[in-house]
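Recap for those who missed Tuesday's class. We walked through two folding examples back to back. For each one, the amino acid string is listed first and its predicted structure tokens come directly after. Nothing is annotated here on purpose, so try labeling regions yourself before you check the end of the notes.
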Amino acid sequence: MILVLRALGVGDLATAVPALRGLRAAYPGRELVVAVPGWLAPLVDLVGGVDRTVPLDGLDAAPAWPGPAPALAVNLHGRGPRSHRLLAATGPHRLLAFRCPEAGHTDGPAWDDTEHEVRRWCRLLHWYGIPADPADLALRRPPGTDPPAGVTVVHPGTKIAAKRWPAARFAAVAAALADRGHRVVVTGSAGERDLADRVARRAGLPAGSVLAGRTDLAGLAALVADARLVVSGDTGVAHLATGYGTASVVLFGPVPPERWGPPPERPWHRALHVGTASGAAGAGVGTDPRLAALRVEEVLAAVDEVERAVRGSGAVAA
């Protein structure tokens, strides 16, 4: 059995898809088990090739390993030492992980803070002789879901305040897109329902356009899979758009797209980022100045660019 640790969020799991596929191809006869937060299990099903999940809500809540020692434990979670020690406690025959002498793991490549998250985990496997294709990002469409097709998804929330573009600007973008004929919906978690309501009201959207808190993870994935466009900050829904090849405009700050952005060779995904900014008037509380420096006009221009790319390619394929 192969045990993989990735006890993080939606975007984190989506960026680990190529590495998971590489492990599946390298060990076709072995059971592949992924330790993730329980609520992420529906998304793991969309990766394909994973036999089962073990619920793990963060490293602090790690229970005693309930099964036999894995033949192979793979740390796709972090650089250690806590994640290394958690996996080592399961008694694996071998641990694949970045070098961490503090955890007693002197094997593996060195960590590189500057590399893209997708390539990071592929490089880890390559170091151990396991091929993994960073472009292999496609997700399966959830079965048994029937969301509205062809909508434009505006997703104003993120868990990290610094990554949250001001709500008034999201509303301005949503209003402009609605005026252009887009069928706009505003998504988010249940805790972001108030934010979504504010954006929709300010944009003049109907109440039924607010889907925040009304879709589960599989429903959100299906919505994105069938969407016309996604406009969001650097958060999980942007990675769903990448996984489904859905046109997207993603607003970055403080972390640059070189580390978490969509593949730059895909013209139907556009990552916006201002490299340096000393501040911006009207920024949301806690918003990173580089993100706050992005203007509504820039976002709308990027929408035009990705929609031209979609028309030019005929069809988008992840």
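Example two. Treat it independently of the first, because the proteins are unrelated.
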Amino acid sequence: MKNFKMMSVIALGVILYSSCGSKGEDLPPPVTPPGQSGTVDVRGSISSSQTWTKDKKYRLRGYVYVESGATLTIEPGTQIISNKDSAGVLVVYKGARINAIGKNNDPIVFTSAEASPAPGDLGGLVLAGNATGNMNHKEIEGGVDAAHKAFGGTNDADNSGTLQYVRIEYAGKAVNPGDEVNGLSLYAVGSGTTIDHIQVVNGLDDAYEFFGGTVNCKYLIAYNSADDDFDMDDGYRGKIQFAVSIKAPGFTDDKGTSGDVSNNFEVDNTNGKIPYTTTPITHPILSNFTAIGPNNAAGTSTDYGYGMRFRRGSQVVLANSIVLGGQKAGLVVENAETQQAFVDGNGIFYNSLLHSVTQPFFAKDATILTDVSLQTLVLGTYTSKLLASGTDAGLTDPFNAATPNLQPKSGTLALTTAGKFDKSDLNDAFFVKTNYIGAFDGTNDWTQGWTVWGAKYNVTKK
């Protein structure tokens, strides 16, 4: 890639660093595009279609709901901002649509309005659709009002609109323990929705969480989120290709005594509720991810967990991917139901590269598999490779969290291990067939222009 490093310098000139307050992180401030004038405060409900234009900033004051029948159109280059006193949340509710179509040189940005921005200044972006799920979560999380708590329906082809070239910065809102708003929350969003080229930056909770639904996505980036980067549950059955997860060593949310940890992937079926076999089963099909853990760098938080945590009945297909630097383990297959899915071939870690700081494989709460038999299954039947070092994948500079470069070097494993799409789940027109693994091909940089990088990481936690 010409410069995965410091994209904000190329695209936006220069990044100034400022303290982020309670987290003790130095993070990039929001960038004000040229030509903007005036701020429009937005409150309550949007009940008729309207367009937000780039000549203004739109400040979310608390929860803002786009109501059924209305379409919110957002022009390229528009900023949607929030102050920390209200941590604004935009909820696109069932029957409504959002058409936020940015450009690679003029993205739409949701960000903090504070002079010294911090994770949690913005609540986040929530889409609620009419697709199916197993309704493990009965209501939308994060303090939405009673009239907007219900989600889901019977239309898996439901269309909530389009998100393209959108950046979400400093999001996350914890109302109560386990009751939070993520960077981008997708509740029963259907496959008629278009989502691609999204970056979630410096989030206080999960970067992306999929609560059921069937939405398909491409080109997603989770950069320095405090909890899980890709969290899926409630019967999510979509497809995702080309995605990035990067963890900063010292930045996790406050887990307290809950026993939870921050992971690159956390995928459940029923999120702790028994039985874990409630249908539809969470069964995402994922390909060409590059996921980078802290790799035991100086100051790594003790709340970091795993590269992949698959559990509670989920059936995950993750193929043609690179997962490096997991702290407590690389791949965890947890609970009998998820272990059985791996044995049956409904859950696989296929044709991929894996490295972790400690144990690579962990059959947690083992009943079907052991650590040894899980390793044998993945490296044999599913033809993935275990690396002795994170550098063996051949990526240019993966563990430099401040200025990462994930492009593979010529002749290395990432480029010489051909992408395989011969499994039935992957033999789908959605997937671009590749002759490499991971998110990048060594030449093309699909992040260029619309993303920001270059945050400095102090390791002090709140």
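Answers for example two:
The two ends are 35 Å apart (CA to CA).
The helical segments are 7-12, 336-344, 371-381, 413-416.
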